[in-house]
């Protein structure tokens, strides 16, 4: 780890007013928009990169456009009506926001069984799913139905849009992947079920998506170090979509990641159960990349890797009501690998329980990278039997050979930890391992209470991390006020 004082570095003279505003802004202001008001502009060397994502941010910040995409009206009423089949031929759509008392809209039901799907778990139903999708995508008010109490073996498949308006995918039964990696289509090494180019679609139904990942895990270089490291498929990918909602599904035993949201905006994930054994490698629960205004609520996740991971070019990601048990915690990163530029902003986690995990809430970056992570808030988190409940690691290195020391890193700033309580497996419950070259700044701790399981005290460890700890904070984090990187102790503002 880099140590020592950097000559000539003074403490930042600018007050921490902005981070305090971020900490105590009214809830009403928070609820106005999933995107918030995040400035992704910049100058100098960052300007070119920021421009690449400015359109994504301004176009995809939720607000009025997200409301427009919620064509289905009231959530609960819609869910009840859209899953009610009448006479086996139609599904009736309930009232919209301005109800018409005497009129309901007939849905166009497309069942995979009608296109030759066997649903016995043995026959390959991939072609039948593809034909059914082609039909459903071409119809307005279509419902693509995977029948309950049946098990459909499906290989890599792409459910691509654009499709006609008001498409619903109802997964009542089980979709299962081929068990043998040798059966996998080499043309699709990283994807199993891909939903791409959809606007306003809903994917739901209470069914199961099973990746049959056990043999993939056995071939992983993290399990058998004699084997080369190879890519494996992600179970479900939401790519280049707008206003899509995924809810009430069980995704399990993915070959690698379970659910990825990439290059999308205004996506909502709700009431998902995601499970895999605690020793299954690289089986992240939910992974967000290059996406804006993603909301993740009421999800129960237990896997062998990060329960939720948020990577490069992700803005305005809200998480609420998350259970992570077991796993590697809830992470931003990793970022900056191979000297790359990364940007993550406007991430919040509220009301979570993290148990039997390597980490609680984590930010991880590689040495040699560039860019920023800023405006992050972790609040109301209960941790139980966690190695590091709070951690920033700017020396992350997930490779077989040691990582070389580098003089650049992704800058981490304006990070707030509030109302975090529970137990830590290790004495170093709070760890801020930041770079001498690019210190962490504006780190705020408030109302923290962490102990060992036996009730003994834990500690906070800082390297080049600057900020404040507002009592009560246990263990105390005075090291934030006396950074090893030098400078005068900042003047704290009172909390009210």
UniProtKB/TrEMBL annotation:
Protein name (database record): endo-polygalacturonase
GO biological process terms, semicolon-separated: carbohydrate metabolic process; cell wall organization
Signal peptide range: 1-29
Any GO molecular function: polygalacturonase activity
Pfam family, one: Glyco_hydro_28
InterPro entries assigned: Glyco_hydro_28, PbH1, Pectin_lyas_fold, Pectin_lyase_fold/virulence
Family: Belongs to the glycosyl hydrolase 28 family.
Catalysis: reaction(s): (1,4-alpha-D-galacturonosyl)n+m + H2O = (1,4-alpha-D-galacturonosyl)n + (1,4-alpha-D-galacturonosyl)m
Subcellular locations according to the entry: Secreted, Cell wall
Organism of origin: Lolium multiflorum (Italian ryegrass)
The entry's keywords: Cell wall, Cell wall biogenesis/degradation, Glycosidase, Hydrolase, Repeat, Secreted, Signal
Gene3D superfamilies tied to this protein: Single-stranded right-handed beta-helix, Pectin lyase-like (2.160.20.10)
């Amino acid at each position: 780890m880099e140590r020592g004082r950097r000559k000539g570095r003074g403490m930042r003279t600018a007050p921490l007013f902005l981070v305090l505003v971020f900490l105590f802004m009214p809830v009403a202001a928070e609820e106005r928009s999933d995107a918030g008001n995040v400035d992704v502009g910049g100058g100098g060397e960052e300007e070119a990169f920021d421009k690449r994502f400015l359109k994504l941010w301004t176009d995809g910040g939720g607000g009025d456009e997200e409301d427009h995409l919620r064509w289905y009206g009231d959530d609960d009423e819609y869910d009840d009506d859209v899953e009610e089949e009448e006479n086996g031929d139609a599904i009736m759509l309930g009232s919209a926001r301005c109800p018409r008392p005497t009129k309901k809209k007939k849905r166009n039901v497309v069942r995979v069984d009608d296109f030759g799907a066997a649903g016995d778990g043995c026959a390959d139903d991939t072609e039948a799913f593809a034909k059914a999708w082609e039909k459903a995508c071409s119809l307005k008010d279509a419902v693509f139905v995977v029948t309950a109490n049946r098990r459909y073996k499906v290989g890599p498949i792409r459910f691509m849009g654009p499709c006609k308006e008001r498409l619903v995918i109802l997964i009542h039964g089980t979709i299962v992947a081929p068990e043998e990696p040798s059966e996998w289509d080499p043309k699709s090494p990283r994807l199993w079920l891909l939903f791409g180019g959809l606007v306003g679609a809903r994917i739901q139904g209470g069914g199961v998506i099973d990746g049959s990942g056990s043999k993939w895990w056995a071939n992983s270089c993290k399990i058998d170090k004699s084997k080369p490291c190879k890519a494996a498929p992600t179970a479900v990918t939401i790519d280049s979509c707008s206003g899509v909602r995924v809810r009430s599904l069980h995704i399990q035993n993915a070959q690698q990641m379970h659910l990825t949201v990439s290059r999308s905006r205004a996506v909502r994930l709700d009431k998902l159960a995601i499970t895999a054994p605690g020793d299954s490698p690289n089986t992240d629960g939910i992974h967000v990349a290059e996406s804006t205004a993603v909301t993740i609520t009421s999800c129960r996740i237990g896997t062998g890797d990060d329960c939720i991971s948020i990577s490069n070019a992700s803005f305005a990601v809200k998480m609420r009501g998350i259970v992570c048990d077991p796993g590697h915690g809830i992470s931003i990163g990793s970022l900056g690998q191979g000297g790359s530029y990364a940007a993550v902003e406007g991430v919040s986690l509220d009301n979570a329980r993290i148990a039997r995990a390597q980490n609680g809430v984590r930010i991880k970056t590689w040495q040699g990278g560039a860019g920023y992570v800023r405006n992050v808030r972790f609040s109301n988190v209960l941790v139980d039997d966690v190695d590091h409940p709070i951690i920033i690691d700017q020396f992350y290195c997930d490779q077989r050979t040691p990582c070389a020391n580098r003089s650049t890193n992704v800058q981490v700033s304006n990070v707030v930890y509030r109302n975090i309580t529970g137990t830590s497996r290790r004495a170093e419950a709070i760890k801020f391992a930041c770079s001498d070259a690019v210190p962490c700044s504006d780190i705020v701790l408030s109302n923290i209470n962490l102990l060992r399981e036996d009730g003994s005290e834990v500690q906070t460890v800082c390297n080049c991390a600057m900020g404040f700890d507002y009592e009560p904070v246990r263990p105390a984090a005075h090291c934030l006020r006396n950074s090893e990187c030098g400078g005068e102790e900042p003047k704290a503002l009172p909390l009210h």
